[in-house]
Design goal:
- May play a key role in the regulation of the intracellular concentration of adenosylhomocysteine.
- Its cofactor is NAD(+).
- It is found in: Cytoplasm.
- Pathway: Amino-acid biosynthesis; L-homocysteine biosynthesis; L-homocysteine from S-adenosyl-L-homocysteine: step 1/1.
- This protein is of the alpha/beta class.
- The protein folds into two domains: 217 residues, Rossmann fold (3-Layer(aba) Sandwich), CATH 3.40.50.1480; 150 residues, Rossmann fold, CATH 3.40.50.
- 45% of the residues lie in helices and 15% in strands.
- The chain has 17 helices and 15 strands.
- The strands form two sheets. Strands 9-8-7-10-11-14-13-12 form an eight-stranded mixed β-sheet, covered by helices on one side.
- Strand 4, helix 6 and strand 5 form a beta-alpha-beta unit.
- The longest helix is centred in the middle third of the chain and has 24 residues.
Length: 414
């Protein structure tokens, strides 16, 4: 097995500071770390993580190691790895294979190196590990108990495999937990996308026409925060029910080609490809800003931008300006990759506290139920969702009501 593949171990002190900072705001995961340290529920198991490698995910990796697991970590996006955090994990004894701005070849090498541990459990973010295990690394499947998937995009890919009968081991959809999508997808994405955009552009949001394409939980969060910042928000949708919901939430709803004519800032949040493409670029006005909040860099279609433009400029760090024949400039943030991570620090620590607690407990569940689960995509068990929510409330000093025996009996009667 290879040694760590990181940029510079000397960056570790900065990474340790980042990890220590977020740990102070992740009380549920800290509680789980204490229990894992005492009970060692993951002892003897090998776990490979492919995830956005920053401080909060690093803390999750350390919690899994505290539970007795042998953990290897790699990135899930070439632009989201923070080199100082990767170095801190390596200094703490974890095997790390990731660095910022890796080439496609380097990125795939990192993924494969992390899999060389011959894992029993995988923690995936977008589905790259699952894809490798089903294609070029099939010899490792015999060791796999199962895995968990963090994102909407990854779950879509898993369910496509399941429908075709081609999923080779059980996977838990961490993304499907209430404590994940209600908070992580909505409040986490909503805040972190705007953190990334505002940090990168240094422009005001108030008064601008913001076009949000996709009104799922992530899109709802992005739109809600845009409204709070004073933007005039336009929603583009393909789902008639979500379109009505957006309308009743107070937003304008229109086709994306109509929105292309008036938008100042465009944010794609769909998980699909070519969401913004040639026909949109023709209609956009000079100075339009495009950002993607979906997992892969295919939503804002770059081949069309490359083909149509007569010049490409670096406007600022993480902003590429495409000069069109009529001299208008269309600006793409973070190469069309996840703007909240490629141009920011990702979701707030308090939000990821719940999501990563779901992940940790789901991994424990997979180990406890090894050999009992079918090769399909499972929802997070309800008891895990409620355990995380209950612990989170306790950490916030919030108490809630309980049903009396009489009330419970009434609700169960006909």
């Amino acid at each position: 097995m290879r040694e760590n593949l990181i940029r510079d171990i000397n960056l570790a002190p900065s990474g340790h500071k980042k990890i220590d900072w977020v740990k102070g705001y992740m009380p549920v995961l800290s509680f789980i770390e204490k229990k894992f340290t005492e009970e060692q529920p993951l002892k003897g198991k090998k776990i490979t993580m492919s995830i956005h490698l920053e401080a909060k995910t690093a803390y999750l990796a350390k919690v899994l190691k505290a539970g007795g697991a042998d953990v290897t970590v790699t990135g899930s996006n070439p632009l989201s790895t923070q080199d100082d955090v990767a170095s801190a994990l390596a200094e703490d004894g974890l095997k790390v294979y990731a660095w910022y701005n890796s080439t496609s070849e380097e990125y795939n090498n990192h993924l494969n190196s992390a899999l060389d541990i011959e894992p029993n459990i995988i923690l995936d973010d977008g589905g790259d590990l699952v894809n490798l295990l089903h294609t070029t690394r099939q010899e490792l499947i015999k060791n796999i108990i199962g895995g968990s998937e963090e994102t909407t995009t990854g779950v879509l890919r898993l369910k496509a495999r399941e429908r075709e009968g081609k999923l080779k081991f059980p996977m838990i959809s961490a993304n499907g937990a209430y404590c994940k999508y209600l908070f992580d997808n909505r409040y986490g994405t909503g805040q972190s996308v705007w953190d990334g955009i505002m940090r990168t552009t240094n422009l005001i949001v108030a008064g601008k026409n913001v076009v949000v394409i996709g009104y799922g939980w992530c899109g709802k969060g992005v739109a809600m925060r845009a409204k709070g910042l004073g933007a005039k928000v336009i929603i583009c949708e393909i789902n008639p029910i979500k379109a009505i919901e957006a309308h009743m939430d107070g937003f304008k709803v229109m086709p994306s080609l109509e929105a292309a004519k008036i938008g100042d800032i465009f944010i794609t949040v769909t998980g699909d490809m070519k969401v913004l493409s040639k026909e949109h670029y023709k209609l956009m006005k000079n100075g339009a800003i495009m950002a993607n909040a979906g997992h892969f860099d295919c939503e804002v279609w770059k081949p069309d931008l490359e083909e149509m433009s007569i010049e490409k400029r670096e406007m600022r760090k993480n902003i590429t300006g495409y000069v069109m024949p009529d001299k208008k400039i269309l600006n793409l943030l973070a190469e069309g990759r996840l703007v909240n991570l490629a141009a920011g620090d990702g979701h707030p620590a308090e939000i990821m506290d719940m999501s990563f607690s779901i992940q940790a407990l789901s991994i424990k569940y997979l180990i406890n139920n090894a050999g009992k689960l079918e090769n399909k995509v499972y929802d997070v068990p309800d008891e895990i969702d409620k355990e995380v929510a209950t612990t989170k409330l306790k950490s916030m000093g919030i108490e809630i009501d309980r049903l009396t025996e009489e009330q419970e009996k009434y609700l169960k009667s006909w």
